[in-house]
């Protein structure tokens, strides 16, 4: 079935998501079915604009431009629209098709409204902690596979008793300017940032940072300060881990304030904690965005609506 | 001179910056000069891929696709490269030209290496605070013009004795999903986040937040939790201000952890401060990225190299 897709037969229904910054567009519609001619199949079509390469610029004088139209100019500045000659090695768009698409696919590709929620220590105890403890262990089986050496064993860059450092799946492992590594904690006492404490964890976090600096220096010649290390809250899985990303790699969604917390900031907060007593990570209210499809969205939205009603 | 630019005469020299996520490319080269034929002018040419609109998807069946090439498929997924018919209302790229370009322009458009620096309270006192106090007042004249009512008076959305809320210059003021407002503090005792204290400022920050929620609710129907409010450290100017951005507007560079701090998190930290004594905002070490052209880059890089030498 997949081999017979003719995109010209796509019947447009509605836009699911449009991202002008990322130059992507996801739409829902239908494609004809070869087995049930009167029941077309639902299809998601996702368009992504192809990126420009330096070739475009270097070939301006050798005729890559088909035509240009000056839009405006002032002083030393001018701006144009331009149309390029068609080239076999430079398509206009990449297109990704899911057909037949289920409700789950449609939800996944639909832009979610994001609600900023304030998680007080009380809401953490009553809503978030139970949610974390009930998280399906099958969803972190891949972490266990890495920790036990069943998977990714040949990719481990640094192994210490407390954590492993390896390339993140999102990285192509070749382009250093988009370097993305993952540090996985080997123990199971830290589900998330809220569980970190000065006495048992501060030394481990500092060692993790030093080891990460050494790995990127030794392997890719990146100096100290050349990577950004951060922790997600809420993370996508509740086994403690740290993201290690090249400082030149910007614009990632997962780097946004409210979801990402710098490892350095967490270290600084723990350093200021008293040696005993509750940690500031227990006492703080953390604010983050939740998409409407997130498992915490409904309970947190309901709890906060109640809080607001009482305050207003 | 600007009217005579013919991009086909551009001679490529080198790439200044390439951003695959944002689909932009800035290059340096030369364009012929009409007055000095043997001395071509240096020119910066910045390409930006045009965004896709829903029109593209809705017109698949009416022949917007010139050709497609299937790249792969598996199960219900398939992916293609596609070439579109040329349309006068849909250029391939927008091009922005600066000619003649100076060294300052070239630096501005050149990708800067970013160094993560850890600003301890001691480094704040010895390097950052003097830098802030020496900041040229002419660079914040525009803030004074707004505060005194000389500029933007008709755009003020909310005025209170302590701050003004108005649309940020980066916003087109029409597309609600990219809403971007600015709250400007009316007094001059807070240069940056480090100056905030519980007693004089906590109440003001909470009122600012409530007022911002009310403005976006009344004017655009955005519910509480529908905007992200954050503070930059380092900011681009040292008069205290807060960014108010729609939660759906993601991928902005200024929203990255390390530069952006949620107003909610700052409020939470101040709430946990004792009523007297030093604030955690004075005692914390803050970590952020500095581009090589930032005024703090050289002194901070030098100071940190010394710290590292002593530790290693």
UniProtKB/TrEMBL annotation, chains A, B:
GO terms for biological process: deadenylation-dependent decapping of nuclear-transcribed mRNA. It comes from the Eukaryota. Belongs to the HIT family. It comes from Suillus luteus UH-Slu-Lm8-n1. Signal peptide: none annotated. InterPro entries: DcpS/DCS2, HIT-like_sf, Scavenger_mRNA_decap_enz_N. This is Scavenger mRNA decapping enzyme. Substrate binds at residues 142, 152, 168, 170, 232-243. The active site is at 241 (nucleophile). Transmembrane segments: none annotated. GO terms for cellular component: nucleus; P-body. One of its GO terms (molecular function) is hydrolase activity. Pfam families: DcpS (PF05652), DcpS_C (PF11969).
């Amino acid at each position: 079935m997949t081999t017979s897709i003719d995109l010209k037969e796509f019947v447009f229904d509605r836009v699911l998501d449009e991202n002008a910054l990322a130059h992507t567009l996801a739409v829902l519609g239908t494609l004809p079915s070869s087995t049930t001619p009167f029941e077309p199949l639902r299809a998601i079509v996702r368009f992504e604009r192809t990126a420009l390469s330096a070739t475009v610029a270097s070939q301006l004088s050798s005729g890559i431009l088909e035509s240009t139209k000056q839009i405006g100019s002032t002083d030393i500045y001018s701006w144009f629209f331009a149309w390029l000659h068609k080239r076999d090695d430079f398509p206009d768009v990449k297109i990704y098709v899911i057909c037949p698409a289920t409700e789950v696919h449609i939800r996944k590709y639909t832009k979610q409204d994001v609600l900023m929620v304030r998680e007080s220590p009380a809401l953490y105890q009553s809503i978030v902690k139970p949610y974390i403890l009930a998280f399906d262990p099958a969803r972190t089986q891949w972490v266990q596979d890495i920790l036990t050496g069943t998977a990714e064993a040949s990719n481990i860059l640094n192994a210490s008793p407390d954590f492993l450092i390896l390339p993140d799946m999102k990285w192509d492992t070749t382009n250093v300017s988009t370097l993305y590594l993952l540090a996985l904690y080997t123990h199971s006492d830290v589900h998330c940032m809220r569980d970190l404490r000065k006495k048992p964890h501060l030394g481990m976090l500092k060692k993790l940072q030093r080891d990460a600096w050494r790995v990127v220096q030794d392997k890719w010649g990146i100096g100290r300060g050349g990577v950004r290390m951060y922790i997600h809250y809420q993370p996508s899985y509740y086994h403690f881990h740290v993201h290690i990303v090249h400082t030149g790699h910007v614009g990632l969604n997962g780097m946004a304030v409210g979801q990402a917390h710098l490892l350095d900031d967490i270290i600084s907060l723990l350093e200021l904690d008293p040696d005993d007593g509750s940690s500031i990570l227990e006492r703080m209210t953390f604010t983050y965005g939740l998409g409407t499809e997130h498992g915490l969205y409904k309970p947190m939205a309901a709890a906060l609506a109640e809080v607001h009603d009482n305050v207003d």
